[in-house]
Amino acid sequence: MPIVQFFRLVPVIIWLVAFTPSGGSASSVDLRLEVVDEPYMSISTGLRCSQCHVNRTGGGARNDFGSRFAQTRLPLTNFTYVNRNVTSFLSWGANFRMRGSGTVSDSNAPTDIDILEESLQLEARVIPDVLALYVDQIVGPSGLRTREAFALLETLPLNGYVKAGRFMLPYGLRLADDQAFIRERTRFNHQTPDEGVEVGIEPGKLSLFTSFTNGPQLAEGSDSGKQITTTAALIYRRFRVGASASRNNAPLGKRDVAGAFGGFNVGRFTFLGELDYIFDKPNDGLEVRQLAGYVEGDFLATRGFNLKATYGYLDPRRQIGENERVRARFGLEMFPIQFLQFSIFYTLLQDIPQATTDLDRLSLDFHVFF
Fold first, then answer.
1. Which of 147, 131, 132, 52 is nearest to 95 (CA)?
2. Residue 68 and residue 352: Cα distance in Å, rounded?
3. How far apart are CA 341 and CA 216, in angstroms?
4. Confidence at residue 16, expressed as pLDDT on a 0 to 100 scale
5. Which of the residue ranges 2-11, 36-45, 48-57, 305-314 would you say has the lowest mean pLDDT?
6. For the whole model, what pTM was predicted?
7. What is the CA radius of gyration of the chain?
8. 354 vs 60, 296, 325, 349, CA distance in Å?
9. How many domains does the chain fold into?
10. CA 236 to the chain's CA centroid
11. 85 or 263: which carries more pLDDT confidence?
12. For residues 330 and 349, what is the distance between their CA atoms, to the nearest angstrom?
């Protein structure tokens, strides 16, 4: 093997030897803020999630087009294009994120510095544009965990595909911020992948995805009460609208989630939002009805600089009055060069009066992605 090809294979060798998928509880690792790509980028360009990502519903590693887009369209300054391909059929990617945060009061620890994520992705295009194997492996900071691992069969009728394995479920806007109420309370986020099968079609302006999975509340190996999740969206150059629904019949009870989402772009401005209704009916308890909403506005000040403001609303128990919560964030995202993102945000949380802890925080994120 020529020495150049050997060194190109080093990342894959390290990944296979050191980061073999392992078990463990889902709560043992923080899976938040997995990727730089966010829904506002898709809405501002009119592109589907599948245009840039290996996972057809978004998130995770970028494909060749997505990698080129991230290197040439996002940063203020870009250098020579770097190819993610290790060989003609293997490609890899990585994410590393750190955060420094602090409060303006003494009710919480005033400052904190954490590593939020270390992850590696590997894609093997067994048959180009037809069959691929994909793994997204969390390697830190709290141990090993497989976020996604699936086989993907594409080039089916109606621009369709079938995906089988472990993956994030197709519901709503795939925000990078798992702490947003619409992602935290619906439980469709980077911390809750599931095992099963997903099918989808994307003819013309339509995107339609449906998954059949175990359900996060089911015991491992259970063969009944599966979860079904579906999302449909109409995608145009300047706007899109969609709806999602999910039902999980678990041994401990039933959970239904339904919502609508959409967004539009006007020049340098992009707006998006989602509204979700959550209904939990445990077998041995009271019904819980929740309402979660999210609105976001983005302004592309100049290439490499995006101003963002978000507003989240949560009514955690519709049966109880005056218990609503509000979470607002505003700040700046910067992409100075390829593969590098800085972001600074201030988060305001308006909680119920009984919650005396000050949760408002100023945070600075450092993110290297490839």
1. 147
2. 46
3. 32
4. 39
5. 2-11
6. 0.84
7. 21
8. 39, 28, 12, 13
9. 1
10. 22
11. 263
12. 12
CB-facing half-sphere around the CA of 244: CA atoms within 13 A: 26
CB 168 within 8 A of CB 59: yes
Q: Are 60 and 53 in contact (CB under 8 A)?
A: yes
- 279 neighbors 289 (Cβ within 8 angstroms): yes
DSSP symbols for 254-283: EEEEEEEEEEEEETTEEEEEEEEEEEEEET
> CATH no. for residue 293?
2.40.160.10
More confident residue, 81 or 291: 291
CA-based nearest residue to 174, from 255, 57, 96? 57
Q: What is the mean pLDDT of residues 332-347?
A: 94
Q: Give just the sign of the alpha carbon dihedral 283, 286, 287, 290.
A: negative
Domain that holds residue 338: 3-369
- Contact call for residues 54 and 131 (beta carbons, < 8 A): no
Q: 28: burial class by Cβ within 10 Å (0-12, 13-18, 19+)?
A: exposed
Report d(CA 138, CA 337) in Å as an integer.
25
